[in-house]
Structures are given as C-alpha cells and as structure tokens.
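On clarity, I found the account of how folds are encoded harder to follow than it need be. Since the whole study asks how a given chain folds, the encoding of that fold should be made plain. For the editor and my fellow referees, an illustration may be useful. An entry of this sort, consisting of the sequence and the corresponding backbone structure tokens, reads as follows:

:::
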Amino acid sequence: MLAEALLFAVARLTSPRSRAAVIRDAVGLWARARRCRAAWAEHEARTRAAIDRAIDGVAVRRTAVVLGSGLLRDVPIDRLSSMFDKVVLVDIVHLPTVRLKVLLRRYPNVSFMTRDISGYDRLAEQSWIKLATGQDDLGVRLDPLGFLRKIDELDLVISANVLSQVAVGARKRLEEKDRKAKDRKARFMPEDTVAQLVAGHLDGLAQLPCKTVIVTDVSYVRRRRDGTIVDTGDLLYGVTPPFPFDTWDWPVAPFGEEAADEERVHRVIAAEDVAVDL
C-alpha cells in the first residue's frame, strides 16, 4: 500500500493534467500486475507474440503506434524500438515507472503521447449539441482515432488490451453520481454510449491505411472453485469483435484476488487488419 501511495503521489506530480481517478486506476493496475505476475504471464506472452506476428507482417517499418501502452508488460518494446524508426506510446496516463523504464533502457526513438482515446468527451459534445439543436444527425461520425492520420509515415498501429478499458472507463463515468459542472453534458449521453465508443475504436482502426493488430478481452466469467458460474458478461457491449487468429483465457482475478473462493477469467482475442461491417 505504501508503494502504491508513493507511486500515486509521484504520478500526480508528473501528470498534473490527468484526472486523479485515471491515475488511481493506473496505479491499481500496476499493483495488481505485480500481485498476479504468475497468473498473467501467459496472457502477456501471447499478447507480445500477437504483436510480434504483426511486426513480421510489415514490410516498411517507419512509425509504430501502441494504443494503450500501459505498463509495457505485454508490449515487445525492445523489438519495436529496434525495428522501427519511431515508436509512439499512447495512453491516458504514463506512470513514472514506465517513463523510467524507457529512459533507463535508452530507447531514443520511443516517445510518449498522453491522450484519452475513448472518444467519450467528443460523444458528450455531440449529444449536447443534438439536444440543444433538436437535430438527430449532425452529419459527423465519432472518430476517436482520427489523430493517428496526422502521424507521418505510419506503418503499424497496435491496440494493446485497451478496448475493454475504453468500455470500463465510459461505464464508470456514466455511473458517477456527483458530476462536476463541466461534466453536466454527460447527463444527456445516449443509452448505447459504451457500444458506440467500442464501435468507434474498431471503426477507427479499420479506417487506417496501415497494418493494424488488436488484442482485447471480449467477455468474462466469474466462477467458484467447484466450477459453479456466478456471473458472465460481454465486455464489448454487443459490438461484434473482429475475427481472431488466436484466442485464450486470461485469469484477470485469480482465486484470492477479489474473493477467496471465486476467480474472474476473461476471454481474449487477437486479430489483424481490423475491418468492420458497414
């Protein structure tokens, strides 16, 4: 707990523009990853393998972007740095531990971009405008990954275990009871907000003129030691995921992590060259 408190404090100083809740979630992930190192090892290795496969499928290697770079535990950063001219790590917050890792390993071609890629705020603005003007169709689409088209010589985009977190983050914001004044627009968010954001991420990947690969958990099951299923859920909120070339189970919360006699296991897919049905 002391290490978490210290990391949170340092992260607040180094990421002053990031919301406290976002930093708290990132620190929580860091702590859980340490506790569940053994249980998560296979998932992290298979994620890296999926990304390695995508790297091998790129002939020209100028710029690679990692969406949801997180703790870099599931990202083959050594190989990316050695094989691409530039590597851009994109996340809503970059913990000091991650920045230090990149600094100490001397990746001169790796840079950080702090950005909320969910599209939540843009959807909130559009919902507010629709309400204020009475228009059902503003003639614009949600484009949370549009910023990628401004990156020169982009040859590979990796969505690394971030899509379900887009959904989780949106769900949390929708469920907040005490909203600040600047968040009042969110009261008018559409009922299918989370599904729209998930679809927007996949559509954004599909629109890119480069190699893409996505690794994401798509569903979960919570069960007891005797095999009894307690709960299941769709992490993509009804949105159809791309066809995978690999699938596996990820024990996100092994027995004892969230409950002594229950585990939560997520189903993960890996897919390349993301396409969506129009």
